[in-house]
Amino acid sequence: MQNLNDEVEAALGKIREGLRVDGGDVELVDISDGIVTVRLQGHCAGCPFSQMTLKNFIEKELVKSVAGIKGVVSV
């Protein structure tokens, strides 16, 4: 059985494919109490749509793919 960190990294691996098409990326920073903290990178870091990407793409996929994940925030 995978630990939570491994499950989140596996899900982020799939998410990264979509982000990299537009020159972006995402890095896992922390997981605490069901909240995943990430750092947006590349074009995603300065994009005016980054919060939409965070909530509508990254968070939606992680909550769906990994049991126990409640939300995603960025630093």
From TrEMBL:
It comes from hydrocarbon metagenome. This is Nifu-like domain protein. InterPro entries: FSCA_dom_sf (IPR034904), NIF_FeS_clus_asmbl_NifU_C (IPR001075). GO terms for molecular function: iron ion binding; iron-sulfur cluster binding. Residues 8-73 form the NIF system FeS cluster assembly NifU C-terminal domain. GO terms for biological process: iron-sulfur cluster assembly. Belongs to the NifU family.
